[in-house]
Write a structure and sequence with these properties.
2 copies of one chain form a homodimer.
Chain A (H helix, E strand, L loop, with lengths): L1 E6 L3 H11 L4 E7 L3 H8 L4 E2 L10 E4 L3 H10 L6 E4 L14 E7 L16 E5 L2 H14 L3 E3 L2 H32 L7 H10 L5 H4 L3 H4 L2 H10 L3 H19 L3
Parallel strand pairs in A: 1-2, 1-4, 2-3, 4-5, 5-6, 7-8
Antiparallel strand pairs in A: 6-7
Chain lengths: 254, 254
């Protein structure tokens, strides 16, 4: 049995509690949080505290707080034992206080209130300063996920930036498409199956090979007609730059 | 029974033949194509011809050819009867010859060789010059899809541009993310579950509300660090512009 304390009451904390509670090999012995209202939701399932000095002994302390808060909260912790990890993609392990056994437990996924995700599929990137701690993290991660990956802080930082491109920027494309549909009075939800298929396609096919559309074909007629259709300055600028980037990508091989 | 002739031997033609063959109410009586090699694949299942003067009578002639070829092939057709439609998002119905009964049969999806798609979920946008022809198209489309939508050429053109943003540009984001992963030596496939979840999320949540990440939070520290990590000039420029676009989107409400 691995005893865990979760620090934080946000989305990641909530999803971790949910998945930990479904597995016999893990026991969440306490949740710490500063936000009383958010914390009270956790109190329905496990012991809680908002007093950092009352944190109880555990094998692993998982900080699921915002990037900005990691260093400050970690510095106020007074752990007698156990392994301290955080769940951030971009903060180095060495940002945690040196006096602690330190590690990383980074689930690579976007978590939304009210949406359940299948943890078995989510890659968990782990890092630790020594082998014993690495093994403990691996044991914990393997209980909830089939995809556990050892990774140093530098690689994790790169992966996090790649995730921003693949998730945040992609979602912004959905938004721009949605905004354009609203302006033109066509229902955006007609695009849902296309959006799903675009994402599923690259599970088998490299994005380089999956690319289609007028920019890939360098179909200047359509590119020009599309630009003429776009009245919004921001849409126009992004359409131009993204088409240019696609043309450059495939132009190399022309 | 609706008798159909398919004109074209590409991806869309192949996917249409596949789905038409699984339904009793539709009979593909012939496939016409200029590319003998591609055409021969169709010949395993249905009658074929590469001679445009030998096209046989049918209720509906579906042109599944590239946008550039539509006008030229349509002008060479000599149909005694039946309804002529094309499957393009961006070509107006009126581009088809006036002497024919004309219409549109536009399945809004990206089709890839070897990937089966669930047609039941694919929106089919239809248009016709008169009500009887509209009803025939509606009947055909409803056999294969649960989502049949009447739409004029102007709306369809808008939807097609929205699809370019939501599909082509999104796939390019995947590509850039993949390219960056390769440069940094981290496995891109770790991002697959994130990419799937990002696409699935907006089936329930508007993209505006689904947006996360440093640009949405206007987290200047992270944005600066990310820009410093990007060495590729193209990555840098796109990162900057997309982050700016996201900041502007949410800045409105700050």
């Amino acid at each position: 049995m691995i005893n865990v304390v979760i620090l934080g009451t946000g989305n990641v904390a909530k999803h971790l509690l949910d998945v930990f509670m479904t597995h016999d090999g893990i026991k969440v012995v306490q949740v710490y949080g500063r936000n009383q209202k958010a914390l009270s939701v956790f109190g329905k399932f496990v012991p809680i505290t908002s007093d950092i000095s009352k944190i109880i002994p555990a094998d692993i302390y998982i900080m699921a707080v915002s990037d900005d808060a990691i260093v400050e909260i970690a510095s106020r912790l007074d752990l007698k034992e156990g392994l301290l990890v955080h769940t951030s993609g971009s903060i180095p392990m060495k940002s945690l206080p040196k006096k602690n056994r330190r590690g990383i437990f980074y689930p690579l996924q976007t978590f939304t209130v009210g949406r359940t995700v299948d943890f078995k599929e989510i890659p968990i990137c782990i890092e630790a300063e020594d082998d014993t701690d690495y093994d403990i993290l691996k044991q914990l991660a393997s209980i909830i996920s089939n995809k556990v990956v050892g990774m140093d802080s530098k690689q994790r930082k790169s992966l996090h930036l790649a995730a921003v491109m693949a998730n945040n920027f992609t979602n912004h494309m959905y938004f721009l498409s949605n905004e354009f549909c609203e302006q033109k009075g066509v229902p955006f939800d007609l695009l849902h199956p296309l959006i799903k298929e675009t994402a599923h396609k690259i599970q088998d096919l490299a994005p380089y090979d999956a690319q289609t559309g007028p920019a890939r074909r360098n179909d200047k007629g359509t590119l020009k007609k599309h630009l003429a259709q776009l009245k919004n300055k921001n849409h126009k600028e992004l359409y131009r730059l993204l088409s240019k980037s696609i043309r450059k990508t495939y132009g190399k091989k022309l």
